[in-house]
Amino acid sequence: MGVGDVSKRILLGRKLRSSQMGETLLSKKLAFPVFASDALSSVAYAPDEIFIILSLAGVSLYAYSWWIAAAVAVVMLTVVASYRQTVHAYPSGGGDYEVAMVNLGPRAGITVASALIVDYVLVVAVSLSSAAQYAASALDFVSGHEALIASVLVVALTLVNLRGVRESGAWFAFPAYAFMIGLVGMIGFGLFRQATGTLPAAESAAYTIVEAEGYEGTLTTIALVFLVARAFSSGCAALTGVEAISNGVPAFRRPKSRNAATTLALLAMVAIVLMMGVVALGNLMDVRYVDPHEGDRLLAADGSVVSGSQDTLIAQIAEGVFDGFSPAYYFVVLATGVILVLASNTAFNGFPVLGSILARDGFAPRALGQRGDRLAFSNGIVFLAVMAIALIVAFDAQVTRLIQLYIVGVFVSFNLSQLGMIRHWTRELTTTTDPAERARMQRSRLINTVGLGLTAAVFVVIVVTKFLAGAWIAILAMGTFYLLMSGVRKHYDQVALELAADEEDKVLPTRVHAIVLVSKLHKPTLRALAFAKATRPNVLEGVYVATDPKATSALMAEWDERRLDVPLKVLHSPYRELVRPILEYATAIRRANPRGVVAVYIPEYVVGRWWEQLLHNQTALRLKGRLLFTPGVMVISVPYQLRSSELARERVLSEDQRVHAGDLRRGRAEDR
């Protein structure tokens, strides 16, 4: 086993057979942290964004945060109820994309896919940027290096997910449940202290918030409505990740649909409780919170600008609730940071599945549909990681800037999915006669209709309030992906049309003119001549490119001395080119006989060490690259194994015959 193979096995683990696919399926207790962590993690930044937007007009508008959080909770309940219908009707894992494709057509399907791709990339970028901010709250040396920390986290998550979905779920189950326990404990203890009159004010309660430019004084009704709507649209980031469960139904154990629906219901209950609890404690403790990058708007009691970075909302609440008991504070902050990392793991599980479905339908490169050594869609995981790192670096891991791009794509897919489900139930009702079944379908259609009305209204609010703030970038990205996927599908359709077999493909060529490339008269050349002769072409000749008169004369003398019954064609190259003369000669033969075939036999060395490949076969590679574009020319490689090739063969054999731990118990070592 080579160094590269050893490193790969250490990082990713041993290979899994295709027959082991069932071993990678998730139970509900593992599926919950894998697929629900995105929506749960929104508790760590959605309330922050509500407070940040309302703070533009000062502290007085914080009173609206209760109503905004309640409105977000209502939208979440409606969306979750709608997606419970989706996972039952479309359990194959296509989620919104499949619903739109089947019921609304390819254009709607590609639109949903484009929106989901943008959303998944933003999930990783926003979550890990927020996690880096939480790390900066607890560790001073991290401050100023958030983009680097977030990028490192992306790489770490990529490696974990390349090991397989089940293993990543096992790794992340404990942190996800620790986050829920930590926040539920913080909220419960905070409300208890409020009831007993011992809940302290937050550290920032003594600060004064300076209104942002343009928001000074009393707001007009229109400005107030716009600001509250903007805060609501930012708070709707809490809905991201809900669609991931509908895309990941195939990863659940049987019964898949029921387990996915149960996980959705549990997700809604937990996320709403945590979000409302954080907003409630933030108001009860008089938290003052502004954009961390606008610290000059936060003034201390003496009127001076508060220096240093401001702790996140949950960090401030935990510090006050658990004053005098720092371990609980650090537990909550650490668990929150970890759940933000897990949130991006939801995208690492959802996007590869979506990519594989798009590849299957011809809208994405087929490489996205290939499973890796650990039965994960490795190419999709790597693609997502690269896109997320690029976004993190471009926006310097600033959550407030990234959040403006967020959730636009989510609500595009929400709306088209709801519309598709309404058409699905309408179509099903036309063929169903059972009264009980019809009643169930009518109830499901009503749920999706209410969901469409609500999500459409929210989408309008999001576009109006976020377009100039950065949402236009997300819309532009969706349009770009739409054009790319349309182009990929057009290409695959064109290739399929060109490759379709017809009667002309049965016609044999009139003659085969075989040429064997000769550099020296040695074993590889003699083997290529023998192989070419065995194929019985109409014409067979050796071809040598003459660049040195002495070497040419020596070769011709040796050729005559060996009395080979194959003629030798010498192509003179005054400019010492090797590829061009052969290419021109093969083209001339083909032009003289358009219905014939020119077969070019190229002797090649087979070596066992990577550096040896750099010393051999370079001319052959260039020549093959040029000949492959020449119509009517067939290129045949004739390998000759050097002794070093045995090393490579032995490495492959040792890997195939190696008995891994547990193979005997699983019955995989019987044939070794």
TrEMBL record:
| Subcellular location, record wording | Membrane
* UniProt entry tagged with the keyword DNA-binding: no
Q: How does it sit in the membrane?
A: Multi-pass membrane protein
- Which GO CC terms are listed, alphabetically? membrane
What is a GO molecular function of this protein? transmembrane transporter activity
Q: Identify the InterPro entries for this entry.
A: AA/rel_permease1, APC_K+_Transporter
Q: Which residues cross the membrane?
A: 64-83, 110-136, 142-162, 169-192, 222-242, 263-285, 328-354, 375-397, 403-425, 446-464, 470-488
Work out whether the entry's keyword set contains S-adenosyl-L-methionine. Answer: no
Kindly state which keywords UniProt assigns to this record, in alphabetical order. Membrane, Transmembrane, Transmembrane helix
Q: What is the name attached to this protein's record?
A: Unannotated protein
